[in-house]
Amino acid sequence: MQLKYSITLLLSLFIGHSFSQTRQQWRDSLEVLNAQIAKDPQNLHLHLLKAEANINLDQWDYALAEYGKILHQDEKNLAALYFRAYVHTQQQHYDLARVDYEAFLRLQPTHFEARLGLAHVLQKMGRKTDTVDELNRLVQMFPDSADAYAARAAFETEQKQYDVALYDWDEAIRRKPLQSGFVVSKADILISLNRMVEAREELNAAIKRGVPRYALKEWLDKCRH
Q1: With a threshold of 0.90, does the pTM exceed it?
Q2: Burial class (CB in 10 A: 0-12, 13-18, 19+), 224
């Protein structure tokens, strides 16, 4: 079964590259920022902007260096901690990413994306119990969040814990009834369990709610086989 949603994919919806500029525009911005930093090297805001440009140019080591400079001056700089954790994750330095996420969360314990990022890192480290604990905490802290339930459901699906995953997909769908990704993730489990009638009912109910039929076509076709 191919997952429609995973913690990695869900996290990418919150954190990722900015597509408002082309790579050439980012390079031009970087040139300007380097000149400004040369004149004002203690300006942390300029270093944050430079790190953002480095990230959007996939210059991970340069971004890490910028965040390191910022945190050397201001060890509680939330933006630097958060995005350094992201960069460490991109470089598969999961142990270092965990340290930064945990440092961030000590300062900002109710930050949804950082908690999701920590869960993602723990999963990548193979720490299943810790991942479950963090996802449970996410749901407890954000009980109205469809994405919190979807993150936990995605992990449970990967672990083949289908009964609890179906419950969590239901909770996610209840909070975001027009999110097609949640619907097909639930349908995918039902189809894999050969519960075709239930899968078809789920898909048809989604269409009646207003989910576009074309978004569900692949799964509707599977139900006919």
Answers
A1: no
A2: exposed
